[in-house]
C-alpha cells in the first residue's frame, strides 16, 4: 500500500478487549464424543488488532457469491468457507460485520450470534474435532456503508461504482473470513450486477453469465491470498488485456473519470506488464499466474496491492513509481505476507526501496543518493526518527517512517554488505518464505546468515531504536 501522492488518515487503534477462551485441544476417541471441546478464541493473537482472525480454524478457501445494488448500496449473498478445525471446537468465529440470516456447518443449520460487533460466533450442531475438514455456509444481506470497525468506515461507493479496497481490514464488509495475514486461502468470487456494468476482481475472469436483468462475473485467483487482498470493483470500466513475455495481464479504468483522466490512467495501467518484467530482473519470477491493475474514479486517497490486480486513484499517466510500488508488493506483502501487523515495514519499506531501485535503473537518483539525501535533510529532532520501525504501533502502521526509514534500512544494508550479498539476501528471503509469512526477526537472522556478518547492532540502530542512526560504516553510512 502507498499513501502517496495523497495523504491517508491514520487508522484508529482503539479496539475492544478480546474475549479470549483457551484453545487447548481435547482428545477425541472413536468410542465417544469429544471430551472437552472449547470455544475458539475471538482473535488470532495479533497485539495491534486483537479481534483480527480467529482461534481454532484454518481456512482453505472462500467461495463468495454476492449481488450488489448500486442505488441503495445493498450487498446480499452467500459465502462458502472450507476450513479445518485446529482444536476440538464447541464454537468458532469468523470476522464479519453484516446482518446474517442463516449459517450451516456441513449442511446442518448452526446457531450464530454477533459478539464484539465484529465477530460472527458460530455454534455447530455437533462439536468439531481437531484435524477435521468442514464446510461453513453464511447467508447475509445488508448495507456495508453503515458499519465501521477499528475506527474504519471502509465501504467506498457511489451510485455508479463500488470498490472494496483498504488495509489492514476490508473483507468483513463483504464476506465472512479469518481476517489476518497468517491465514491465506483460495478466493473464488462471483458478483451479480445489473446489465451493462462490469465487475473486476483478483485473478482470471472465468465466466460471464448473462441473465434476464443482471450479469454474474466469476473471477478466481489460482494462489492463496490474505483476506484484505481480495477485492472487487463494479461499475463502468474500460478494459484492456494482453500477454507479455508469457504473463497474461488485464487492466481496467473507470469511465467515471473525465476523458483526459481516463486516457492518462489507461496509459499508466498499460505500463503494468513491463514494470513486472523489470522487477523480475532483481527479484526473480513474478509469483502469480496473472497480473493487472484498476483505476477507480472514487475519492480514494491511496493505492493498494490487491493480489494480482492492484487498485489505484487517478494520478495521471506519468506516476510510474506508484505502479512500481504496488507491483513490488506482489512479492513483498502478497507472496510473502507479514507474520504480525508490527512487521509491516517488510511490506512498505521493501516496496519503497524498489521505487528507489527503479529510479537508479532509469537514469534517476541512485538508492545510495536517495539514502544520503534522506539522512542529510531529516534532522535528528524530527518525529520521523521516533518511530520504532519494527514495532510502530497500530496508530502508526502507515507512518511515513515505516516507508522511508524502512527503505533506508535496506539501502544501508546494501551499503554495509555489498551489492552481491544484498540481492542474495532479498532473493533468499523470497525463496525461503515463498507463499508464507515473514517476521522482522526472521529477516534479520537470514541477512546475518547469508552475508556472514554480525548485523545485530546495524538492525538495532535502524529498526529498533527511536532515534537517528549514527553516521558510521557499521550502520551503512559513510
UniProtKB/TrEMBL annotation:
Work out whether the entry's keyword set contains Zinc.
Answer: yes
GO biological process entries:
proteolysis
| Keywords, in A-Z order | Hydrolase, Metal-binding, Metalloprotease, Protease, Signal, Zinc
Origin superkingdom: Bacteria
Which residues does UniProt assign to the signal peptide?
A: 1-30
- Note the Gene3D superfamilies from the entry: Neutral Protease Domain 2, tricorn interacting facor f3 domain
Question: Residue limits of the Aminopeptidase N-like N-terminal domain?
Answer: 61-229
Q: What is its EC number?
A: 3.4.11.2
- Reactions catalysed, as given in the entry: Release of an N-terminal amino acid, Xaa-|-Yaa- from a peptide, amide or arylamide. Xaa is preferably Ala, but may be most amino acids including Pro (slow action). When a terminal hydrophobic residue is followed by a prolyl residue, the two may be released as an intact Xaa-Pro dipeptide
Q: Name one Pfam family in it.
A: Peptidase_M1
Q: Peptidase M1 membrane alanine aminopeptidase domain location, by residue?
A: 320-462
To which protein family does this belong? Belongs to the peptidase M1 family.
In its UniProt entry, what is this protein called? Aminopeptidase N
Amino acid at each position: 500500500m502507498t499513501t502517496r501522492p495523497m495523504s491517508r488518515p491514520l487508522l484508529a487503534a482503539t479496539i475492544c478487549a478480546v474475549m479470549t477462551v483457551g484453545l487447548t485441544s481435547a482428545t477425541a476417541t472413536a468410542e465417544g464424543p469429544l471430551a472437552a471441546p472449547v470455544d475458539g478464541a475471538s482473535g488470532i493473537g495479533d497485539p495491534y488488532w486483537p479481534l483480527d482472525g480467529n482461534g481454532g480454524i484454518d481456512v482453505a478457501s472462500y467461495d463468495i457469491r454476492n449481488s450488489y445494488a448500486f442505488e441503495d448500496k445493498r450487498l446480499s449473498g452467500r459465502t462458502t468457507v472450507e476450513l479445518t478445525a485446529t482444536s476440538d471446537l464447541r464454537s468458532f468465529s469468523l470476522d464479519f460485520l453484516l446482518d446474517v440470516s442463516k449459517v450451516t456447518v456441513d449442511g446442518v443449520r448452526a446457531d450464530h450470534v454477533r459478539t464484539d460487533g465484529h465477530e460472527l460466533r458460530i455454534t455447530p450442531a455437533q462439536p468439531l474435532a481437531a484435524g477435521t475438514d468442514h464446510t461453513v455456509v453464511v447467508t447475509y444481506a445488508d448495507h456495508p456503508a453503515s458499519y465501521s470497525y477499528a475506527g474504519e468506515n471502509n465501504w467506498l461507493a457511489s451510485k455508479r461504482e463500488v470498490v472494496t479496497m483498504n488495509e489492514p481490514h476490508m473483507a468483513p464488509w463483504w464476506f465472512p473470513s479469518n481476517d489476518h495475514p497468517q491465514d491465506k486461502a483460495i478466493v473464488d468470487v462471483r458478483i451479480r450486477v445489473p446489465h451493462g456494468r462490469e465487475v473486476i476482481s483478483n485473478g482470471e475472469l472465468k465466466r460471464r453469465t448473462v441473465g434476464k436483468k443482471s450479469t454474474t462475473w466469476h473471477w478466481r485467483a489460482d494462489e492463496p491470498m490474505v483476506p484484505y487482498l481480495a477485492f472487487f470493483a463494479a461499475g463502468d470500466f474500460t478494459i484492456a488485456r494482453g500477454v507479455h513475455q508469457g504473463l497474461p495481464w488485464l487492466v481496467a479504468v473507470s469511465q467515471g473519470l473525465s476523458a483526459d483522466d481516463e486516457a492518462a490512467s489507461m496509459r499508466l495501467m498499460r505500463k503494468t506488464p513491463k514494470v513486472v518484467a523489470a522487477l523480475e530482473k532483481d527479484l526473480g519470477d513474478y509469483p502469480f499466474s496473472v497480473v493487472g491493475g484498476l483505476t477507480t474514479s472514487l475519492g480514494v486517497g491511496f493505492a493498494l496491492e490487491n493480489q494480482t490486480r492492484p487498485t489505484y486513484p487517478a494520478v495521471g499517466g506519468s506516476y510510474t513509481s506508484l505502479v512500481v510500488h504496488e507491483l513490488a508488493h506482489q512479492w513483498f506483502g502478497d507472496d510473502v505476507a507479514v507474520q504480525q501487523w508490527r512487521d509491516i515495514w517488510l511490506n512498505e519499506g521493501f516496496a519503497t526501496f524498489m521505487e528507489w531501485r527503479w529510479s537508479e535503473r532509469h537514469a534517476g537518483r541512485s538508492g545510495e543518493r536517495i539514502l544520503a539525501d534522506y539522512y542529510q535533510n531529516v534532522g535528528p529532532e524530527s518525529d520521523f526518527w521516533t518511530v520504532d520501525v519494527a514495532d510502530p504501533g497500530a496508530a502508526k502502521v502507515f507512518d511515513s517512517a515505516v516507508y522511508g526509514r524502512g527503505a533506508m534500512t535496506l539501502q544501508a544494508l546494501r551499503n554495509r554488505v555489498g551489492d552481491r550479498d544484498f540481492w542474495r539476501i532479498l532473493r533468499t528471503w523470497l525463496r525461503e518464505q515463498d507463499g508464507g509469512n515473514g517476521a522482522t526477526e526472521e529477516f534479520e537472522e537470514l541477512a546475518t546468515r547469508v552475508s556472514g556478518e554480525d548485523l545485530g547492532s546495524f538492525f538495532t540502530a535502524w529498526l529498533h531504536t527511536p532515534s537517528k542512526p549514527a553516521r558510521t560504516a557499521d550502520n551503512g553510512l559513510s
